[in-house]
Amino acid sequence: MIKPLKELSLVSKNLKEAVEMVWHPYVQMKDYKSKTILMTEGEGIYLKDDSGKTYIDGVSSLWNVCLGHSNKEITKEIIEQMNQLQFFSLFGGYSNQPSIELALLISEITQNRYKHFFYTNSGSEAIDSAIKIVRQYFKNKKQDKRTKIISLMRSFHGTTYGAMSAGGLSPKRYEPYKPVLEGFVKIPPPYCYRCPYNKRHPECNLVCANKLEEIILEEGADTIAAFLAEPILGVGGLIVPPDDYFEKIKLICDKYGIKLIIDEISTGFGRLGTGLGIDHWKVEPDIFCGAKGISSGYSPLGVVGVSDEVFEAFYGDFNDEMIRLNHGFTTAGHPISCKAGVATLKFMKKENILEKVKQKGAFFKKQLEQLKEISIVKDIRGKGLMWGIELSDEFELAPLTFQIAKRKGLITFLTDPPNVIAIFPPFIATENELIRIREILQEAIELAEERVRMMEE
Asked: Residue 5: what pLDDT?
């Protein structure tokens, strides 16, 4: 458990009153001031607020803190780097040791299939970078018409304009920011539980994957640059594609010379018990985007990995500015962030984290399946330590369950649409801690079910 709260001289009534000076994302600031929870400490899978209340971090601080809070091995390496080289930009051909070390480790965890990595500061920046890379790739190949990106409805790829335009969440998310960018086409997701085609797998013959070929022919194959997808749709409802989905998708992409971009921001670097989440589908994308777990959230970091074939398309003469990648971020490849990534991946290797996540994932699945006995639980799905519990979509049951769980000390996540409770525990959670997460979820869901029964009476 977390250690006793230390004396915090800055945590005061004045700070609580000033909280609205920080404009928080995804909250209504008008009433946030009275509801704010000020987190002050973290250790392992636990967090503590300024009142002394302890919470289980059931979502790894938004998929980030995969190795838990206060990991001494990670913080030690970060401090050592801060005492050596704090920052110097990668612009102009300069480099730093942590960025190269990290590249070697990323290549290793991806089974040496990738050897070229472009750093960013976040997942959204990684997606935007991948879009720019694939569009320039085709221009360098003299296929200028290939600019369109096909993606999935209910997908979430980030909040920058490129990532947002590629995403497929409910239109209300994008309404305030219209017009979104052009050149993005959406197809229905492989959502077996609520199949948009009213079919069942495998008798469906993967109609959802075949839709990709249909839209390619409709738009014109020579206008399509890439197909972009998450291995498991996270924010859009924890949608897990069938085992043969991505194999069919890759065959279609290869048939028409289209690049496959996989968004590994939530699923990569161990979340599913594999280096990349897509490894479960035995497919190699041309480009992948990573973030979050790559540094366990200890410092902002994102990455784009590309195949040799994509990378080599940017080689040219020294003065050929139209061939090189004219794109980057001042702090991309930041030595402290990269050192956090190095420490994270080294710890994962030393502790055999990928195998442990597979084992814990199988254990957690059995725990969660006990919840199927509750009438309002409609589906439970996921892989590794990434799970979603779909509830009846009447009476706003998932938001109610979310609030009850929070009061009981478990932090969960609501997807969009908000009828799925998502759980992403840190990789270091013990079996007893996973059992406790299931127990609190069960208590919260049963209370929500009881509320519905009372309303119906």
From this structure: 47
pLDDT tens-digit map of 310-343 = 999 998 876 777 899 999 999 999 999 999 999 9
Q: Would you state the structure tokens that stand for residue 46, as one six-digit string?
A: 């636990």
Q: What is the pLDDT of residues 22-79, one digit of tens each?
A: 888 888 888 777 778 889 999 999 999 989 999 999 999 999 999 999 999 999 999 9
Contacts of 275 (CB under 8 A, 6+ apart): 109, 110, 111, 268, 269, 354
Q: Count CB atoms within 10 A of the CB of residue 129.
A: 26
> In terms of pTM, does the model score above 0.70?
yes
82-101 b/e (C-beta count within 10 Å ≥ 16 → b): eeeeeeeebeeeeebebbeb
- Cα(235)–Cα(288) distance, integer angstroms: 18
Q: Is the pLDDT of residue 8 over 60?
A: no
68: its two tokens:
């838990």
Closest CA to 137 of 322, 372, 297, 392: 322
Cα atoms in the Cβ-side hemisphere of radius 13 Å centred on 70: 12
Residue type, 344: T
Give dist(CA 74, CA 53) in Å, integer.
26
Longest dimension (CA), the chain: 76
What are the structural domains, with CATH classification, of the chain? Answer: 13-70+353-456 (3.90.1150.10), 74-350 (3.40.640.10)
The first and second tokens of residue 413, run together, are 């996540």
For 204, the token pair is 């469906």
